[in-house]
Amino acid sequence: MRMAIRISPGAALSLFARTVLHYANIWGADLIHLNDWQTGLVPAYALADGVSMPTLFAIHKLAYQGLYTRAILDEIDLPRELFRTENGLEFFGNVSFLKGGIALSNRVATVSPTYAREIQTPEYGAGFDGLLRFRSHILSGILNGIDVTAWNPVTDKALPKRYDAKSLAVNDELRATFFDKPDSSTAAVFPSLAARHRRLTSAQ
What we know:
The chain is an alpha/beta fold. Helix content is 40%, strand content 11%. Strands 1-2-6-7 form a four-stranded parallel β-sheet. Helix 2 links the parallel strand 1 (32-35) and strand 2 (55-59). The longest helix is centred in the first third of the chain and has 19 residues, at 9-27. Mean pLDDT is 86; it is low at 184-191 and 196-204.
């Protein structure tokens, strides 16, 4: 009979963040593109675990900040040294996962050039305007959407097989080729990190 292990939402997201980092490192990714507060701990774990992996953190809405008490640092196996105002997770006395993404990522992006300017003001910055002004040299606003000419599966020469709305089975085949077959080195990442996380939480 399997025993269910209950962990807090913050701890679950921390395990996810650490797994993403190490999977990308083993896979040989050039960059990790992160989205919103749920992924804000990835650059923090890159520091803590000594993994050199460039990160791009995308902000969609600053109101969702991933706030926890300082005590969560022990639960999620991050050093207390990261509880700092500059280049850290501290946000008005709490830990903010969003702050981690903004403060520690190599680049920060938002959904438009206008929003990138707005969030640097007290009116729209949700308490992060000072940090965003400080990091404005690595902040970019990229308008939502794709170039439907460049990203067209009917004509994209980068695809081994091309397809359209009438041949979506090819899309499934390509997805299986690229994403559904992890090799033995990457397949071991999540179980090993999960086991480590269980040891940490059971010791508390």
